[in-house]
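Quick one, tokens below:
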């Protein structure tokens, strides 16, 4: 539970997998299995449209105590596409061909974490521990903003755009309504129409 204004907000979810390894301290990585291709976007995490994985990692780190550090966030394709490989390819080449487009994520840029991740580290975006901390702070602020708006009864008809989430207090994005059944009810579409 997190205190927001006069109330509290709780976020619940289920983590697919938690990887843990110890070196100078305990490192934790959250793994999410996807049936399709998924890539990590720092922009989407920061603007509030993809907060699930950072929230999970922050919660797991908080529950584990102050001695744990983030190792990363990994999206792993549950059913990787079989790719064509040469008949005499080595097992390593076959593995690389199968998993090439099946891994995406963020990883802590520390030698021991990169070594533990093996070849998957090559496919992941590297962040410092400070950058992970800043990311967690941004996600917490987004949760606070959304929770405060809900508690204040501010639930605008404002879908997320592909470029930027419609958080309270931000200008609407008319493009976000392009393929939406409820366009006539969308504040953004109404403002666009009035501007004509």
């Amino acid at each position: 539970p997190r205190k927001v204004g006069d109330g509290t907000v709780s976020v619940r979810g289920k983590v697919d997998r938690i990887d843990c390894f110890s070196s100078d301290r305990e490192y934790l990585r959250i793994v999410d299995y996807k049936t399709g291709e998924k890539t990590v976007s720092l922009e989407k995490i920061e603007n509030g449209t993809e907060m699930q994985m950072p929230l999970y990692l922050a919660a797991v780190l908080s529950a584990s105590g102050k001695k744990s550090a983030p190792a990363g966030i990994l999206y792993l394709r549950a059913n990787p596409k079989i790719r064509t490989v040469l008949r005499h390819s080595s097992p390593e080449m076959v593995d690389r061909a199968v998993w090439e487009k099946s891994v995406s994520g963020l990883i802590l840029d520390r030698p021991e974490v990169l070594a533990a991740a093996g070849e998957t580290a090559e496919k992941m975006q590297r962040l410092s521990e400070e950058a992970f901390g800043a990311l967690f702070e941004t996600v917490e602020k987004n949760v606070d903003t959304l929770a405060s708006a809900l508690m204040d009864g501010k639930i605008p008809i404002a879908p997320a755009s592909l470029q930027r989430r419609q958080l309270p207090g931000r200008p609407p994005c008319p493009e976000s309504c392009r393929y939406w059944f409820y366009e006539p009810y969308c504040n953004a579409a109404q403002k666009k129409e009035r501007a004509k």
